[in-house]
Structure to design on (1068 residues):
């Protein structure tokens, strides 16, 4: 590699310093959720705020703007596939962060914080009317934010918001993938419902007994300390580096890629459902492997703080967590690996269950009301409902007063469930209360990317232009050998940072643009194994 | 209280912001010792360094200097006993922090870090010659530091260093207290040694059997988890607020008053000596109570970040930790309180011991080689040896090449022990390797202050001009009622922050300047109870 121009070196240094301060912010947040005594909360708010101010000041400095311009003027630098991409992404970040006037950022933070408090109370009381004026205010502020970002030609306001979480994709493109997904899933959910009821004999068809899945193996009690030990065994099997990370307990599980060499995961333990913590750990572990795989190690010419050492998008990040949680963790092969450990560590009551018990119990499809408790089969329905609604709200096609009615109708249509109250309906998620709009679809994009990558990884013969597959991966997983999968992800996804956008990366890996079919094949395949539907 | 002038309000705000950033530094250090995965150390060094730079920049800003000058020009503000003192102490801090040229600060940090690495290896190899040139370098740099601080008229270089840790005291003053202390303690140690040997009958005196203290009660095994639970019971009895603090495990115990409402203690557990962790916890708990008692709560007109919300000196801080560790924790009454809890929680093997067993076992006097393992009776000897040596080294009266010889001779003279090698001799402490000179005497000053305060607290009739005593404190401690002691400390010491200097505070509380007699009475009193000497 030739030496870089001074402007690029200086720019990387300034960004690294800002990122170092950002990493302190991340640690401060992590501590707040894990070990901070409650008496520390007032001081913590001041710490977080002063750090956020310093980081913002550094990221929006004129100096950075000038250095980016100087780099852009350097043709040979820009022609470098990696460092040229790095500068282009720096420009993207800088424009995004400098486009919002300080006054709007403060207003969003202030009103968002108040609205979140109102939301909490409204949810508790199941009182949508109480929350509605605050949702209106947040929608208005979010529209202003989208306008500041700027609507791409021929696009809509929602696209401008998406750009913050999932760059280079439009609402229309998402819709074109979500529509077939929703239709097929609606059918699948109905078929599963039918199978669980059974059918009487009719002309030309025999009677079918109702399919009942025994899930008792999931509700046996397991001591949290033993669950924690098991979680760490699984993380080690995933090749998550526990010398460069940790696993702790919080109310809401998360992964924080705090700093180079320091990636922290959290989960939560319930005595009576160990798979909650297990899948929480595998999910966050998937995010954690992405963070550990990004090329951000410190040292001479470190990329830390620059886009080449940063994750592509929320959707790609989510693809990593979902792959480990659902494609690995809910597979028959995973249970082949895990069962002997469970039977050894969890006690006698587990001796009565076999791999099929766990495979079936962790792959039930049951329409439900709450997104965060939904199973793999129905989860995306919850996301798509939110995407449709927030898109319509932002465009003004839906008034907030009509939100509960529309919400409930969609739950009835897509999932066949009746929403009994707004607490379990349109008030269940925190996102909208503080202006997180354009975020929900990334959850399902994650599932879609994961499914499409997974087909490539497991292809008998690699598709044209696609990355090579891993031979006999299921057999390897059954033996607890998951290192090759981690290497594949690292080589094909993690190590590139933001050199490629999500769409390009998807094509580079799978040979095709993102589509609904792989995820549908995956979900139908499981439903057919578990419920015997075709 | 009248409204403050704008310059004072602005000044307090700037100092609070610097302190908030300082509190982030403190959290980052705490995390490094407790939960940081080892892979995070390179990033942690960068985080710590960038934060230190920002805090230093803020604390030395011209703006602060100008505001202090503006406050000093305001006669009515300066006449206020509290806020006037606050400004005077701000001036003191500002002068201290701006007196060292940046180049010297960096050199001290850099050479200190290298010298510490060399010291580690030299200690391991017990090779003083290896360390000697680095000690010479650190001494030279420290002399330069002292010269920058400035030597007070008629004083010596050492006084300038003391000012950083124990303001307003001189080496000569310390010497005038340490000299009688050392003489009396030398005698006491010899008498105890005699008692443990016993004496034959002689003219006019009967034979005395050797006094043997049975310390088996301290070496019974106790599970660390149970020790941790016990430590928290003791902290609660001390009225340490665990909702505004924590107790964790580290290699070296410490207390960090991280931020308002957030004071964190650490200790370490050994299966086979539970009093190590217990006294570590009580010691750090004493520091922690001081931190929790300082008036630094956030809110309108908060004092956080200003001297009025800051600890007076290391000696006064240490007096708080030593009081709880030694005067409370090693008392017969404490064991009356603790024994039933121990017998309930620690298991059957503890049923055979009584209060006297624990009282005697935790108050043995045994000359030894290592300061951090020394008992209460001999600890100060270790400190005084270091004070004498570092004072002579700094003044140039002692050459580093002669250090081991002088060290060993003093151990022989004062404690009657033979130093077998430098690892267990002059290489045992880390302090000098990174320039911590003038720090050691604060340990013994802490013991002296604690003893003098303790006599006032327990006086049958309060001395003239002294603070009122607590009625029947020993009886209260025996019942686990320690709230009144905490209130006394809070009222007489903690709440004043740095309004008074250590010397003034001592006179205000005890009616007398600091002297050796109270500590000597305390130590002789215990030795007489345990060893039967007069």
């Amino acid at each position: 590699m030739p030496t870089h121009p001074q402007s690029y070196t200086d720019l990387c240094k300034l960004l690294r310093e800002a990122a170092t301060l950002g990493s302190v912010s991340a640690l401060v947040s992590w501590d707040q959720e894990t070990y901070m005594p409650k008496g520390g909360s007032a001081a913590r708010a001041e710490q977080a705020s002063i750090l956020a101010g310093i980081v913002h000041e550094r990221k929006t400095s004129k100096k950075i703007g000038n250095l980016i311009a100087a780099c852009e003027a350097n043709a040979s630098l820009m022609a470098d596939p990696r460092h040229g991409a790095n500068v282009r992404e720096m420009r993207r970040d800088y424009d995004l962060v400098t486009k919002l006037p300080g006054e709007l950022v403060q207003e969003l933070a202030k009103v968002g914080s108040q609205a979140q408090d109102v939301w909490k109370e409204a949810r508790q009381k199941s009182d949508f009317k109480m929350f509605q004026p605050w949702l209106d205010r947040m929608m208005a502020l979010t529209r202003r934010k989208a306008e500041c970002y700027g609507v791409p030609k021929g696009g809509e306001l929602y696209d401008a918001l998406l750009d913050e979480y999932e760059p280079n994709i439009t609402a229309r493109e998402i819709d074109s993938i979500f529509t077939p997904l929703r239709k097929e899933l609606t059918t699948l959910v109905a078929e599963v419902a039918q199978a669980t009821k059974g059918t009487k004999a009719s002309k030309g068809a025999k009677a079918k007994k109702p399919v009942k899945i025994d899930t008792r193996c999931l509700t046996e009690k397991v001591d949290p300390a033993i669950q924690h030990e098991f979680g760490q065994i699984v993380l080690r099997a995933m090749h998550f580096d526990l010398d460069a990370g940790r696993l702790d307990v919080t109310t809401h599980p998360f992964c924080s890629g705090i700093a180079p060499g320091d990636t922290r995961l959290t989960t939560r333990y319930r005595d009576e459902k160990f798979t909650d913590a297990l899948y929480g750990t595998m999910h966050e572990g998937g995010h954690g492997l992405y963070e550990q795989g990004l090329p951000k190690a410190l040292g001479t010419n470190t990329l830390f703080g620059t886009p080449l050492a940063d994750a592509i998008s929320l959707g790609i990040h989510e693809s990593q967590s979902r792959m480990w949680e659902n494609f690995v963790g809910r597979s028959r092969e995973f249970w082949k690996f895990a069962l002997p450990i469970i039977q050894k560590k969890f006690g006698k009551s587990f001796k009565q269950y076999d791999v099929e018990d766990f495979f079936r119990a962790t792959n039930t499809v049951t329409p439900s009301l709450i997104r965060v408790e939904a199973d793999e089969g129905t989860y995306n329905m919850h996301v798509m409902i939110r995407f449709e609604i927030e898109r319509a709200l932002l465009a003004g096609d839906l008034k907030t007063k009509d939100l509960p009615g529309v919400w409930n109708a969609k739950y009835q249509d897509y999932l066949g469930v009746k929403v009994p109250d707004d607490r379990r309906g349109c008030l269940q998620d925190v996102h909208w209360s503080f202006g997180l709009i354009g975020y929900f679809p990334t959850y399902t994009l994650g599932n879609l990317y994961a499914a499409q990558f997974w087909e490539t990884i497991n292809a008998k013969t690699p598709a044209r232009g696609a990355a090579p597959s891993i031979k006999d991966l299921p057999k390897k997983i059954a033996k607890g050998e998951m290192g090759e999968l981690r290497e594949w992800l690292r080589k094909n996804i993690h190590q590139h940072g933001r050199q490629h956008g999500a769409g390009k990366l998807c094509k580079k890996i799978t040979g095709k643009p993102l589509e609904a079919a792989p995820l549908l094949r995956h979900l139908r395949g499981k439903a057919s194994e578990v419920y015997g539907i075709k």
